[in-house]
Automatic annotation (TrEMBL), chain A:
Annotated compartments: Cell membrane
Ranges of biased composition (kind: Gly residues): 290-301
Organism (species): Geodermatophilus siccatus
Protein name: Amino acid ABC transporter membrane protein 2, PAAT family
Membrane topology category: Multi-pass membrane protein
Pfam families membership: BPD_transp_1 (PF00528)
Presence of the UniProt keyword Cell membrane in the record: yes
Record-linked InterPro entries: AA_ABC_transptr_permease_3TM, ArtM/GltK/GlnP/TcyL/YhdX-like, MetI-like, MetI-like_sf
ABC transmembrane type-1 domain location: 69-263
Highest taxon of the lineage: Bacteria
One MF term in the entry's GO annotations: transmembrane transporter activity
TrEMBL record, chain B:
Family according to the record: Belongs to the bacterial solute-binding protein 3 family.
Record-level GO BP terms: amino acid transport
Keywords assigned: Signal, Transport
Pfam families: SBP_bac_3
PANTHER family: ABC TRANSPORTER GLUTAMINE-BINDING PROTEIN GLNH, AMINO ACID ABC TRANSPORTER PERMEASE
Record bears the keyword Transmembrane helix: no
Gene source species: Geodermatophilus siccatus
Protein name: Amino acid ABC transporter substrate-binding protein, PAAT family
Source organism phylogeny: Bacteria, Bacillati, Actinomycetota, Actinomycetes, Geodermatophilales
UniProtKB/TrEMBL annotation, chain C:
Organism: Geodermatophilus siccatus
PROSITE patterns named among the record's database cross-references: ABC_TM1
Protein's UniProt name: Amino acid ABC transporter membrane protein 1, PAAT family
ABC transmembrane type-1 domain span: 15-203
Family annotation (InterPro entries): AA_ABC_transptr_permease_3TM, ArtM/GltK/GlnP/TcyL/YhdX-like, MetI-like, MetI-like_sf
Length: 301, 296, 215
């Protein structure tokens, strides 16, 4: 542990106080947990039978949740790949030498960052058909995620491209490369490598946002859990409701924690292997992590 | 590795829990299979929608996935219920087997656009026939007549006997549905709480977050059943809701065909059998008199 | 144009609901987020652990799931909450995790020398946090914090799925309008959000310029 700067390393008296504080803190937390558990138990929510349904193949629940998770991952992965590609194009467009390209691309980016994702998905699914363009629920969801996330990623990529040392660009021009070559052979490869941890972190955001598919009834994980709830409620009352939602939440949290962990791992690897990566932004801005919305103002640079 | 340890613990817990079987798992095997008749060697006028569908050997049906007794998705994602059975009867007449039907989930708000856009061939989804909708699409049927009713917590603590008692009460329904619009237009004193699905309304009523849920009585019956004693029906239907089968506007040939098929199923008992297997199994009531087809 | 006139009240109500939801949830998020940030840098390990646990949980959960647990899960522990308060709580609790993150990165950005100097002149942990670190941290975090709150405004749209009649709830309500009208509804809804977010963004930029400290 590094030496804290906000407080002295505690002396004997302070250590005692901290121990007391720790004990009190632990007690409070334990008390809250105990209260919640007692209330849950009082409502019969802790019965083993109720939780067993999540693991009992005969109930079809594990299979159904697995299928729903698969669809969620499909949306997230297809969305991520397309958003990365489109985000790169937008980033390059925003750095273009032609003014009209810059203005056009900037407007697009700002627009898609300013519109709530839910509204975007809704528009793709319900409005486009009125103009003769039909999208399935899958593609409407993916489309909304791609439009929003590519706008966010474009800003991140742009920062990444700009973070490559200016000397490299000048050297590349000095070698007689054309601007396309400089971008594709020199700047982008380095930027993408540096951006890798951020890209993985963005996948967490995207995965969370797939749950917005509820507005167009796409059967993703959360919706899948709800369908199971509805089916079981008819026969068994609401005895599995709480358990199924907890299961969905736990799956999201576990997958996202694993992804965050992977992002940090990759980040450590890139940092140790490359001296040049020192100035790279390695974490997503907090507002981007929130998903759904995203900042309307360009992230501070 | 900490992560491996957590995973191992979770896995072990799962195995222990899997050891004790769940009520849901035990009853899963008891579901009954049913197959309505599928016509063989069907003949239709060339170029008609029927001929196209029969030729393709498949039909896309829009239905609800969250309506107990009418259209409710099972864990495999396949809907079950009376609407589903009616759709199977229509498909059967075209020589299309139940397995060959492609089910698409529709919610109250998107049924018209699904038909208009050609996302589905027909919609069988507790779909009330009314004039506003007839501007956009056409209806075959009705195949059932429901009525808007009110569901309250058991014992009816608020003393709600009919729609006039809803004034000042928190009433739950689904956005974009006929019952919600009816309350909005005719009982503006009621405080509407609108969700996207009825199951959320039932949860809200159970938690005391709303005082009543209103929609068609058959839908409420399913919710009462799922409430396991927590809810009761007021039992005072105050509207007529004829359920029709939605199809593309202007396809009169197809509409006549569906009407004929429905009428035939009324006569040969397959309609009543479909009722008994699904909605009837929930309400415990025998199939009602079939409604009169409205060939407008 | 009839369509606009007929639904003007509806739009105004929805807009005010979104605005109220945003303001209240923003308040919850700021207060709780600041508290969490203080806990994360505090000397007491369980507090640090608790705050980290809170942030990691909410950061990795979809807001929709948070809504489910607040509106339909809390009654399972005999705590029934109304829909609007539930929405305020859901959005507030979720956003607090990100406010905490923004603040923490701000605290980390205050140079260690400042904290050391505060300690050297004899300020306690609370004093140095209150008098020296946080005021500076708040300045550095104006842009990220502002962005978090603006993102929050857009995230309030999820309340539409939980019976709060805010702006986005107009979409499913009016979806069966014809193409021209639906476009109008969408434009209205988007403009409604921008009426809140764009001035906020401008305000953030202004405050940022005014309070910016040169390092």
């Amino acid at each position: 542990m590094t030496t804290p700067v906000l407080f002295d390393l505690p002396g004997p008296k302070a250590r005692r106080r901290i121990r007391i504080g720790t004990a009190v803190g632990v007690l409070v937390v334990v008390a809250i947990i105990a209260l919640v558990l007692a209330r849950l138990a009082g409502n019969g929510q802790l019965e083993a039978q109720r939780w067993a349904v999540l693991f009992d193949p005969a109930s079809q629940v594990p299979q159904a949740l697995g299928q729903a998770l698969l669809r969620t991952l499909q949306v997230a992965i297809v969305g991520m790949v397309l958003a990365t590609v489109l985000g790169l194009l937008l980033a390059v467009g925003r750095l273009s030498e032609h003014r009209w390209v810059r203005v056009l691309v900037s407007t697009l980016i700002e627009f898609f960052r300013a519109v709530p994702l839910l509204v975007l998905i809704f528009a793709l699914y319900f409005l486009l058909p009125k103009f003769g363009i039909r999208l399935s629920a899958f593609w409407a969801l993916v489309g909304g995620l791609v439009l929003y996330n590519s706008a966010v990623l474009a800003e991140i990529f742009r920062a990444g491209i700009l973070s490559v040392d200016r000397g490299q660009r000048e050297a590349a021009y000095g070698l007689g490369m054309r601007k396309t070559q400089v971008m594709t052979l020199v700047l982008l490869p380095q930027a993408i490598r540096r951006m890798l941890p951020v890209l993985i972190a963005q996948l967490v955001v995207l995965l969370k946002d797939t749950s917005l598919g509820f507005i167009i009834s796409f059967p993703e994980l959360l919706r899948g859990a709800r369908s199971l709830v509805e089916f079981f409620t008819l026969q068994f009352g609401n005895q599995y409701t709480f358990q199924l939602y907890v299961a969905a939440a736990v799956v999201y949290i576990v997958i996202n924690l694993l992804l965050s962990w992977l992002a940090r791992y990759v980040e450590r690897r890139t940092r140790t292997s490359q001296k040049a990566a020192a100035t790279t932004p390695t974490e997503l801005p907090a507002d981007v992590q929130m998903g759904g919305g995203g900042g309307a103002v360009p992230a501070a640079r | 590795m900490r992560i491996t340890r957590y995973a191992a613990t979770l896995g072990a817990l799962g195995l222990v829990l899997a050891g004790c079987s769940s009520e849901a798992g035990q009853q899963a095997g008891e579901a009954t299979e049913n197959a309505p008749e599928v016509a063989q060697d069907v003949e239709f006028p060339a170029g008609s929608t029927m001929a196209e569908l029969a030729e393709a050997g498949t039909i896309t049906v829009g239905t609800k996935f969250d309506q107990p007794g009418f259209g409710l998705a099972n864990p495999q994602g396949v809907p079950e219920g009376f609407d589903v059975e009616v759709a199977k009867i229509v498909a059967g007449g075209l020589g299309i087997a139940p397995e060959a039907i492609e089910w698409k989930e529709t919610v109250s708000a998107n049924r018209e656009s699904f038909i208009q856009n050609g996302d589905v061939d027909i919609v069988v989804a507790t779909y009330t026939i009314n004039d506003a909708r007839k501007q956009l699409i056409d209806f075959a049927g009705p195949y059932y007549v429901a009525g808007q009713d009110i569901m309250v917590a058991t014992g009816n603590p608020q003393g709600i006997e009919g729609p006039d008692d809803l004034a000042g009460k928190r009433v739950c329904s689904v956005e974009g549905s006929t019952p919600a619009q009816n309350i909005r237009d005719n009982y503006p004193e009621a405080q509407l709480t609108l969700f996207d699905v009825y199951s959320k309304c039932a949860d809200a009523l159970r938690n005391g977050q709303v005082d009543a849920v209103t929609t068609d009585n058959v839908i409420l019956t399913g919710l009462v059943q799922g409430g396991q004693g927590a809810f009761e029906l007021v039992g005072n239907p105050f509207t007529q809701e004829p359920y029709g089968i939605g199809l593309a506007k202007g396809d009169d040939e197809f509409r006549t065909y569906i009407n004929d098929t429905l009428e035939q199923s009324f006569e040969d008992g397959s309609w009543a059998a479909a009722w008994d297997r699904t909605a009837g199994a929930i309400t415990g009531e025998p199939a009602p008199e079939p409604p009169t087809i409205d060939r407008y | 144009m009839d369509f606009v006139r007929e639904n003007a009240d509806l739009f105004l109500d929805a807009f005010l609901t979104t605005l109220g939801l945003s303001l209240l949830a923003g308040l919850v998020a700021l207060v709780l987020g600041t508290l969490l940030a203080a806990m994360r840098v505090s000397p007491i390990p369980p507090l640090r652990g608790l705050a980290t646990f809170y942030v990691e949980t909410f950061r990795n959960t979809p807001l929709t799931v948070v809504f489910f647990f607040i509106i339909f899960g809390l009654p399972q522990i005999d705590f029934v909450i109304g829909f609007f308060p539930g929405a305020v709580l859901s959005v507030g609790l979720y956003t607090a995790a990100f406010v905490c993150e923004a603040l923490r990165s701000g605290i980390n950005a205050v140079s260690a020398g400042q904290a050391e100097a505060a300690r050297a002149i004899g300020l306690t942990f609370g004093q140095s946090l209150r008098e020296v670190v946080l005021p500076q941290a708040f300045r550095t975090v104006v842009p990220p914090l502002g962005n978090v709150l603006i993102a929050m405004v857009k995230n309030t749209s999820i309340a539409a799925g939980f019976s709060v009649s805010e702006l986005s709830s107009l979409l499913p309500r009016l979806v069966n309008a014809d193409a021209g009208d639906l476009t109008l509804v969408l434009v209205g809804v988007v403009v409604g959000y921008m009426v809140i977010t764009l001035p906020s963004a401008l305000a953030v930029n202004r405050i940022e310029r005014r309070v910016a400290i040169l390092r």
